């Protein structure tokens, strides 16, 4: 079996440990999972009802154009219908962008650290993903602009950043756009945008009518809308950009149930407000609990944040697992002493702080 060298070198994405695995391995009946930035309230009740009503239709192929969902997104966000493309999670949108706009010898720029999928997809396609280090846990757009060269086709800005939870400002983005070539694709990955309180944080919807640099916003139903298991996201861009993405998009790439649930979730504004309110309130409580343990953290605009530990986070992660709590060690992101924790329900957050305190005491 002959495998290309660039494929052999790929390090698979490390997913968060599923609850079922912890139950099976350690016999823990009710683990607390705070590792994957999921919605602690679950999916929208309206989405669940819509799913039940659509189950008898799964013998039919889905709407390959995603017409009704795209119309709903267009109306909600005030963006052109022709500029919306649906994806099997935002991961597939990232893959489409690289397929549509890169070729051999090109490069993309990605923040370091950031969502690992950007670099993995680039490696699959034999495109050079060039890391640009963060500055004080924030994306350094000045450094990114300086690294753009004649073969740079795409710059990825995840805003808020994962794993740090920080955001850029509108002024920083606009200065960056003035510096870079007009044919550049600038991806604003906004997976957590619904949680942002910072009033100076830019939104892709304000820039997609630009004719270069070309802004592509990426959003998802996995986080604030609680539909991670259905895998559905979408892109927002000028119609010219969406046309290219549709050329490389797989037919029927978003399943029928995902589209139905997303339609209903968009209409459930009360559930979205409840989710955001819970996350913001509980995040403040977690900050306070972490401070009482004598630890520092990175303030976040998302439903997760980073905690600085006195020992390597992998050690704490493993001990928390044995106590029935799943968090995320950040060593695969180059942050050996940081643990990322998702905001959960009040009782889940209480248990996390209790078990973290126990682990730190055990480690002396």
From TrEMBL:
Record-linked Pfam families: Aminotran_1_2
Assigned keywords, A-Z: Amino-acid biosynthesis, Aminotransferase, Histidine biosynthesis, Pyridoxal phosphate, Transferase
Cofactor(s) of this protein: pyridoxal 5'-phosphate
Start and end residues of each Aminotransferase class I/classII large domain: 31-355
Classification via InterPro entries: Aminotrans_II_pyridoxalP_BS, Aminotransferase_I/II_large, HisP_aminotrans, HistidinolP_aminotransfase, PyrdxlP-dep_Trfase, PyrdxlP-dep_Trfase_major, PyrdxlP-dep_Trfase_small
Catalytic activity annotation: L-histidinol phosphate + 2-oxoglutarate = 3-(imidazol-4-yl)-2-oxopropyl phosphate + L-glutamate
Keyword Cytoplasm carried by entry: no
In-chain residues carrying the UniProt-annotated modification N6-(pyridoxal phosphate)lysine: 223
Domain of life: Bacteria
Protein's pathway: Amino-acid biosynthesis; L-histidine biosynthesis; L-histidine from 5-phospho-alpha-D-ribose 1-diphosphate: step 7/9
Gene3D superfamilies in alphabetical order: Aspartate Aminotransferase, domain 1, Type I PLP-dependent aspartate aminotransferase-like (Major domain)
Signal peptide bounds: none
EC number: 2.6.1.9
Keyword Chloroplast: no
Record CDD domains: AAT_like (cd00609)
GO MF entries: histidinol-phosphate transaminase activity; pyridoxal phosphate binding
GO biological process: L-histidine biosynthetic process
Family statement: Belongs to the class-II pyridoxal-phosphate-dependent aminotransferase family. Histidinol-phosphate aminotransferase subfamily.
UniProt subunit comment: Homodimer.
PANTHER family in UniProt: HISTIDINOL-PHOSPHATE AMINOTRANSFERASE, HISTIDINOL-PHOSPHATE AMINOTRANSFERASE 2
UniProt-recorded name of the protein: Histidinol-phosphate aminotransferase
The gene coding this protein: hisC
């Amino acid at each position: 079996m002959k495998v290309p060298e660039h494929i052999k070198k790929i390090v698979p994405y490390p997913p968060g440990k599923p609850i079922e695995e912890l139950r099976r391995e350690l016999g823990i009946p009710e683990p607390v999972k705070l590792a994957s930035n999921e919605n602690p309230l679950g999916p929208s009740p309206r989405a669940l009802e819509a799913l039940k009503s659509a189950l008898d239709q799964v013998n039919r192929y889905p709407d390959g154009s995603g017409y009704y969902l795209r119309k709903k997104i267009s109306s909600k966000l005030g963006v052109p219908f022709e500029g919306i493309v649906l994806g099997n999670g935002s991961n597939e949108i990232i893959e489409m962008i690289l397929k549509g706009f890169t070729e051999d010898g090109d490069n993309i720029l990605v923040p370091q650290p950031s969502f690992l999928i950007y670099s993995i997809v680039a490696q699959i396609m034999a495109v050079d993903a060039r890391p640009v280090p963060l500055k004080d846990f924030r994306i350094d757009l000045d450094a990114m602009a300086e690294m753009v060269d004649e073969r740079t086709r795409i710059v990825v800005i995840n805003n808020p950043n994962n794993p740090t939870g920080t955001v850029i400002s509108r002024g920083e983005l606009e200065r960056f756009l003035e510096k870079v070539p007009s044919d550049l694709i600038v991806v604003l990955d906004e997976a957590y945008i619904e949680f942002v309180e910072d009033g100076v944080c830019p939104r892709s919807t304000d820039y997609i009518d630009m004719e270069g640099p070309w802004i592509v916003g990426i959003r998802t139903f996995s986080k604030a809308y609680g539909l991670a298991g259905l895998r559905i996201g979408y892109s927002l861009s000028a119609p010219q950009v969406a046309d290219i993405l549709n050329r490389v998009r797989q037919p029927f790439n978003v399943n029928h149930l995902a589209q139905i649930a997303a339609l209903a979730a968009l209409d459930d504004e009360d559930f979205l407000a409840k989710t955001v309110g819970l996350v913001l309130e509980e995040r403040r409580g977690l900050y306070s609990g972490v401070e009482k343990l004598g630890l520092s953290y990175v303030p976040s605009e998302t439903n997760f944040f980073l905690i600085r530990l006195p020992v390597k986070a992998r050690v704490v992660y493993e001990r928390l697992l044995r106590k029935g709590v799943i968090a995320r060690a950040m060593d695969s992101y180059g942050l050996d002493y940081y643990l990322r924790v998702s905001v959960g329900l009040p009782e889940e957050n209480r248990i996390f702080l209790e078990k973290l305190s126990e682990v730190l005491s055990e480690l002396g």
